[in-house]
Amino acid sequence: MKKSKRTNSDQLIPKDPHRYDELAVALVATPQVQTALRTVTSYEDLIGKDGLIAGMLKPIMQELLDAEMTEHLGYPKHDSSGYLSGNSRNGSYTRTLRSSEGPFTLDMPRDRNGSFQSDTVLPYKQISSELEQKIISLYAVGTSTQDIVDFLYDTYGVELSTGFISQVTDKVLELANEWQARPLNTIYTIAYLDAIHIKCREQNKVVNKAVHIVMAYDLDGRKHILGHYISSGGEGAKYWLSVITDLKNRGVADILIACVDGLTGFEQAIHSVFPHTTVQRCVIHAIRNSLAYIPHKLKSEFMEYVRPVYTAVSEYEAKENFKLLEERFGEKYPMAINIWKNNWEALTQFFNFSPEIRKMMYTTNPIESYNSVLRKYTKNKRSFVNDEALQKVLYLATQKAQESWVPCVPNWPTILNQFAIHFAGRLPMA
Distance between CA 354 and CA 58 in Å, rounded? Predict the structure, then answer.
């Protein structure tokens, strides 16, 4: 039997059509591409609108489609082994895609049985995954849909509508909703509860929305964001109760330590759902609140007296140092002193633990560091059009922030052993 003539296209088909890297290497090795590479003299020649990569994108995509069809049918184009095989190529139809290299048209291959489905170009897909990622990245840092449209047109010559941009980012909302409703661990060692305020539109008005955030460490010492909860009623103990209840509904059975700010009723809200949780009020919040009642010229002196209180070795030493603070400032500035006196138990829970655990629980700084990342991603928008738009950016910012988090708290096995002793019977046995 006479062998069928193999075309250049057939020679480029990898043994595994889904090995795109193999195909790319083969394409670069062709004389046509090697000749084209010699004409590149600048960065713009390579990746500009009319650069080499833009010119190669269509033929590369076309080769991938043809390779997929070969894999689907089981024989190359024009090969006699396909005779009476039960299925064969049946021409093509055109599809226009938009990418950062500009729009281009592909010839989508068809088979006679109508069973071919491309993994390279998905049904109804109008833009490349790479361009889609650019849109999502721009949206993540708070760029408006109109600004994204303008940027893509000015930079890549791609014309898209604001409605289309919204459709692309709506995929993020689906992921954000799934993430928000995901099941949680049964036990968390330390949880931080805090809120930030972001402007958002509601009933044709711009209002401050409180985004309630829960960050927690699991039994492996890994940090997680358990959820974002958006409220238009401001930050209050009643809403926090609904947040804590949601954590329980998603699988949380116990939180060993909860670190919170000085919000009235916060401790009661936590204990109504998790009655055995140790609640530690943030010392840094207490300092800030105290300083609000101290004249500016005395703030430095006040700090000299208050620092030995929360850095003491024991609660007994802290009480002795607090007496000195009260003697110096109590008569003239009772409001500053009462913040400590009236909340002493909640502010000093950390003295019951080792230094390794103390530094993790006496302040909510870990979550405030994360909050600064959220503010970075939301500051470019004067206001969000609705809660869904805000939720998308919060989710994207969280995914980005998690990339830089350390896998585990240093010296975690020692800390976990201390938790096991202090909270006997509440941690699962190995």
Answer: 63
